[in-house]
Amino acid sequence: MDYQDYYKILGVEKNADEKEIKQAFRKLARIYHPDATGGDKEAETHFKRINEAYEVLSDADKRAKYDQLGSNYQHWQRSGGAAGGYNWGDYNQGYGTNTGGYNADGPDFSEFFSSFFGGGARTREAYNKQPIKGNNIEQPLEITLEEAYRGTERILNRGGKKKTVRIPPGAREGTRVRVSGEGETGFAGGARGDLMLVVQIKPHPVFERQGDDDLSMDLKVGVYTAVLGGEIVVHTLAGDVKVRIPAGTPSGKRIRLANRGMPHLNQPDVKCDLYVRVQVQVPTNLSDEERSLFEQLAALRPDSA
Length: 305
Fold this sequence. Notes:
Distance between the termini: 86 Å
CATH architecture of the largest domain: Orthogonal Bundle
Helix content: 25-40%
Oligomer: single chain
CATH class of the largest domain: Mainly Alpha
Largest sheet: 4 strands, mixed
Strand content: 25-35%
Number of strands: 13
CATH topology of the largest domain: Helix Hairpins
Shape: elongated
């Protein structure tokens, strides 16, 4: 009689909590459920093992006794002990003893389970009737940076029915928007899964997103404004703003515009910052007079860079 590693069957760690065990069972049940496999015998056998593992690990008392058994049973088997000679009475108190093979529930549960836990288990038919929610479906949704800034809507046409989906302000690359009940059909009367719209942000010709919420952009500044200082109107997603350029501003300098970046996701009234990178524009095609003036300036500061 082989030891049944229920944790391995469900694909969870031994310290998995109740939620993780339930999620693992539902995930596997959707794959191997008779409604999904069309009577495949190998899948049906695996579905029985999944049911058995969940029967034990989802019950706190059964799980505690199973964990207590664990290493003791494997050590006893490695020492050459015969399966029928194991002292189940040390462990199966409260479940009944059935060391002779399968219990009254028939072939839905292994000899290991029957010998250890005895009766009182749910049959496979009970699991077949247990509602299992359908799988979620993921679908990409492309939006512009402007739409991500202010929020937007999309009209979905699913099965002839139109549904309006709201994309929140501050949506980021990878933000998931749940549309309930638009996923795969459930089993045994279970609810449909959900449609998960995965946001993708189109590249913008002006703004770059830094991290999740700050923005940056290049700002062309004339050489005279960079040298003497002045004001330039900057077009931001929040509207136009006048930016003061200090005298002697070098190319590459970053100027921070507070509250002109992206809104926080789920906090649209809280804005991050926009960083402006100064790009000093050197004049070309100088006239003779302009070139003469620049030469005079150069003569006044021969050591300047």
